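Researcher: Please translate sequence to structure tokens.
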Amino acid sequence: MAYSHAAPNDVESTISYLARHVLWDTEKPYIADFPLDAFKGAELTNQIIRKHRVTIHDVRGISHAFTLDKNGFCFVKGATCLTADAALTDAKGCEESYFEEIETLMQRHFPGYTRFECIDLTVRQRDPTFPWEGEVKLIKHEQPAAVAHSDYSVEGAFMELQAVFPGKERYFQDRAFDILNVWRPLRGPNDDWPLALCDAETIDRSTDLRLSDVVHFNRVGENILLHANQAHRWYYMSAQDVDECIVFRNCDSSGLRARGSHRPPKSYIHTLLTSA
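Model: Translation complete:
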């Protein structure tokens, strides 16, 4: 069935930010992704979150104006043979062929990189009851991360690479690399919890960013949470289709390149790549 994209559709919504709070003068924000029942008095998180009303601007018709190095994200076209059913039932079995697709896509659109390595494939499917206020549920697929963030700090990027490529730490120490995300909907056109991205040019790196620990059962990672700022400008793609990919920078080895903070959606596939 043919589908005709509607005109750009800006929306009024809320973004959940980490509150600016005196607590961060003495404690580092953290969140755990496993039950802490065995630790008396332990809380899953100490994060203090505040919702702020924002306008999220539709990039439909102007997506070509965004670049990875200026805004921290961009939009590229790329067909896929991956089906929603396969991704939702056997993501691991889809990795090899899908990673080949993604590497080919990235080499075509970003020839300045010398190498691409896919390091993770994440499939998200929003539970019909999500979001949950103050509640944690064990479900099959990852849910949207409701707080504005980047997945990795510079230190967190090296932690992740150490976990993915054990024993290869020295290889990355003196190399320039990015960790990029490639997002596409499993089914389209999608308008349910679409991915929202904050323009890197509107983020004040000196006051808007806060390091936060991500505590896993067997290791600790580090990401970056975003404090609210009226200067922030948010974007999304309305009616995003399966062949419309969002590429955004999560982190780079220097910590200086533009990165797009984001809030993830429902039923999307998420691939991380490193480039040396």
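Researcher: Any highlights?
Model: The two ends are 41 Å apart (CA to CA).
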